[in-house]
Amino acid sequence: KRYDMDKIVSNMLVDETNVTDRALLNYYKRRNDMKKILIADDEHKIIMTLEYAFRKAGYEVFIARDGSEVLELLKTEIPDMIMLDIMMPKVDGFTTLQEIKSQDNLKDIKVIFLSAKNNPADIEKGLKMGADDYITKPYSIKKLTERVEKLLADQ
């Protein structure tokens, strides 16, 4: 069962003079201000690298290993950004994006395709389907972070 920690914390009697209570309250205030990123890829090393880089940059990070996990997670979390691989088991990135863009509560989420598919036709297809960016592998983490920050700043 999922607990809504924000609701729990807001209903707590917090002693502002207590160091532990203040630290907990500050943590949840910061967490509410954090941008949420969902990383969807079936390659463990890529997930680990991106998760580390974006957590270090101050983002709240969620992980999915295929499109079906993305769609399941989107039932309970609405991220600000989704980084989506195309070639994944079960449900691929194109199908996942199509489902996201078809739902009113999800269609405005920023989506970046991160893919080894570097064929111009695939890139054009991804952008026409509604992806906000398409980055081919391999990529620079620094440049990826900059592009994510730019897209999120434009919201």
Round the Cα radius of gyration to an integer and report it. Answer: 17 Å
How far is the first residue's CA from the last residue's CA? 32 Å
Q: How would the global form be characterised?
A: globular
H/E order of the elements?
HHEHEHEHEHEH
**Coarse structural class:** alpha/beta
Runs in which pLDDT lies below 50 for 5 or more consecutive residues are none
Major sheet size, sense and barrel closure? 5 strands, parallel
DSSP, total strands: 5
As a percent range, the share of helical residues equals: 40-55%
Notes on the structure:
- It contains seven helices and five strands.
- It has 155 residues and is an alpha/beta fold.
- A five-stranded parallel β-sheet has the order 2-1-3-4-5, with helices on both faces.
- Helix 4 runs parallel beside helix 5.
- It starts with a helix and ends with a helix.
- 23% of the residues are buried.
- The model has no long low-confidence stretch (mean pLDDT 86).
Briefly say what this structure is.
The chain is of the alpha/beta class. Helices cover 48% and strands 15% of the residues.
